Amino acid sequence: MLSRRVANDEPDLLELLTDVLALGETVAWGIDLADGGAALAIAVLVNHAQPVHYISGRAIHRASESYRGEGKTDARDAAVIADQVRIRRDLHPLRVGDDTVTDLKILTGRRADLVADRTRTINRLRAQLSGIFPGLERALDLTNTGPLVLLTGYQTPAALRRVGKKRLETWLRNRKVLRADRLAETALDAAARQHTSLPGEKLTAQMVHTLAAEVLALSQQVTEVDKAIEARFRDHRDFAVITSMPGMDIILGAEFLAATGGDMTAFGTADRLAGFGGVAPVPRDSGKISGNLRRPRRYNRRLQRVFYISALFSIRHCDDSRRFYERKRAEGKRHIQAVLALARRRVNVLWALLRDGRAYEPLPPTPLAA
């Protein structure tokens, strides 16, 4: 009934809305993006009380195989999206999230980018350092600030031997490095075991200096983003509820809100939330074969990481979680299976807490029978 290209601009979107509404009284909108470049279109539609449904790109790709023709164009994809929204009743409705959740999505996404950049830079730093000073690379933990500060000043065995332990220790202390004496001793021990100067040492040492400074700068940016995340997360109505769960710290709680949108009514049940987070097994039955379960393939990997990591932390700090994990291990489950089982159980608990608006309270210890 209508097919045309529309610019991602508010006047053009409003004109499209007017033209579509003129075609009929009942209209449903479908879109294969939930944020990013589609944010303006979604906001315009929602602000005009239009029902908007999300259908994933993978679902569109699979559905298009059942339509005539093999070509792929934007117009054909739009037609497939429109037809799927028309016939399906299981699509997720999109809503405009509150400002706090939107800010947390932006901040946690930025944090993920910074952490990934820092990891890549550390890996490059290790590769460069091992090319001229493998003993020092092996001895230092380059995820800590002290070794990185050391590498901004000294990168070769000869340079470390020249400065000596006392002067190196003083140099590190002036830069507020913790346990400067131990770090200086470790570096001088590594320098004492290598007296060979390797090819390209001078240029590589400059690269090591630059990369170490980049890692420090990225770590500082991560710290600043963490502070911004905490400040914004504290403004959310469910902050106290989410952080009361054992293992759910500030960053994981913020990532939970960013991944789910903070609206549990969009999922309906704890089972659907667990399925969206990839911690609920799915059946794989056929004919007379039943009871088979397998790991899901389509789920939000960011949310699964939140559930899994928080379950790991809870094993260390929560007696109830540790007992559940140990029971699953005693039943013969592997470590990952036991942690996933715990994560699945914790989804039910978190769901109930958010539903009731109350904080987590540990179960009282069960008295031993006489």
Number of domains: 3
Strand order of the largest sheet: 1-2-3
Beta-strand portion reads: under 5%
Order of helices and strands: HEHEHHEHHHHHHHHHEEHHH
Element layout with pairings:
Blueprint: H1 10-21, E1 29-31, H2 39-47, E2 52-54, H3 57-64, H4 74-87, E3 92-93, H5 99-132, H6 134-139, H7 145-153, H8 157-174, H9 180-192, H10 201-233, H11 239-244, H12 250-260, H13 270-276, E4 282-283, E5 293-294, H14 301-317, H15 319-330, H16 335-356
Parallel strand pairs: 1-2
Antiparallel strand pairs: 2-3, 4-5
Helix pairs in contact: 1-2, 3-4, 5-10, 5-12, 7-10, 8-9, 10-12, 12-14, 13-16, 14-15, 14-16, 15-16
Structure description:
- Helix content is 62%, strand content 3%.
- It is mainly alpha-helical and 370 residues long.
- The chain has three domains: 87 residues, no CATH class; 133 residues, Orthogonal Bundle (Helix Hairpins), CATH 1.10.287; 118 residues, no CATH class.
- The strands form two sheets. It has a three-stranded mixed sheet with strand order 1-2-3.
- Helix 3 packs across helix 4, helix 7 packs antiparallel against helix 10 and helix 14 crosses helix 16.
- The termini are far apart.
- 25% of the residues are buried.
- The model has no long low-confidence stretch (mean pLDDT 89).
